[in-house]
Amino acid sequence: MFRIRRRATARLSAAILVAGLSVGGSLATAGVAAADDAAAGGATATLRDEMAYKGDATIDGDDVPAGLFQMDVAGGGGTLQTYCIDAHTDTVFRASYREASWAQSSLANNPDAGKIHWILKNSFPQVSDVAALAKQAGITGELTKDDAAAGTQVAIWRYSDHVKAEAKDTEAEALADYLEEQAKTKAVEEPTASLSLSSASVAGKAGEKLGPVTVTTNAESAAVKVAGAGVQVVDGSGNPVTSASNGTELYLDVPAATPAGTATVTVEGSLALSVGRAFVGEKVRTQTQILAGSTESKVAASFTATWGEKDHTGPVLAAEAVKNCAKGGVDVKVTNSGDEAGEVTVGGEKHTVEAGKDLTVTVPVKEDAEYSIAVTGPNGLDQTFTGVLDCQTAGDGGSESPAPSTAPSPAGDQGGNADGGNLAETGSNSATPVIAGVAVALVVVGGVTMVVLRKRRTT
Q1: Residues 318 and 332 sit within 8 Å (Cβ to Cβ)
Q2: What one-character DSSP code corresponds to residue 104?
Q3: Could you read off the pLDDT of 250-263 as tens digits, one per residue?
Q4: What gap in Å lies between CA 55 and CA 88, rounded to an integer?
């Protein structure tokens, strides 16, 4: 485990030094940073330090805790309960997670994803009466909530990671066996997103209605807001829109006299999320989770509109990006709403987008790798999409560490976990002292330099 920490430390130290040397240049040349999957929207949440319920288990002979995680939705918007579906990957406590489709997670190529969904809907905490759950599973001993969480997690691992997972508690193991057996012949299809949009980017000319962008949501109503002067969100008939429901089509009405510009439209709502939604790390490599329960939670999605002046001729381009785990990369879609073809550069390769059409380019990205994909073109198109591609479970070859790691490491942990296991460590808790150390080192170097200069002046 020390080998992994040392390599991460070296990379982090180098990154800090390079950043310190290049800040001036990057500020002068950087394009617009863009978040990928903006239209996918949904909930974002932070993983809590402690698990809600847990028991003891083994994965391929290694001791691990197994149980139910909790997340706090951003903005004080609710609480989520989740299970792990990536057993060999480190859990970074306090990491930010975002809701994702199965296609954007490790479930993309997993034929057993529907079986996991069935387990979630038919076990704890969806079945909160653990005595009734024990009776249904034919368990004669006492099944506690900790046992129920551990048994459910073990059953999920058998389908998410395809590992030999066993609960140490007799009742928990019996529940895991029951759930695994029942799920063999049962599967539940992927649940719908809590809130998503059909597109993250639209383009056109002043004097037009830019869109449509279709809202998909389980919320009864979601607020619609626009950040941009002199423009408004309307429906297909041109009526102002301030709220939306499932199926609502949104347009951005740009008056003819409006100068070229951009605006961002945000859709926000509140609802209990559907069990079975995946949650992936937000620009950090951490265990992928799957939703087991939710309180009323805040959700949001957004799209950006770009337009040229009314008499503009030539291409009018807009770009968006979304992870494509099935292809092992990122799909970059460029739309041309202008009257002439436009030549764009996507990740260093040139492409032509015909007038009135769109082009999707899949940029290959290595598993677990951070990516930065620049998209440039005429009339000011200059965007960079960044993120981390996390599409595989570590057991499928997606991680440096083969050791299972299923619980958040406490602050200051130096290689073990709270339960005494010798687990892989690449979490944020180990990065903090490194950053502090590098900062101190830089201060020391600066101090030494000042002393030397003073001595030279004195001489």
Answers
A1: no
A2: G
A3: 999 999 999 988 99
A4: 17
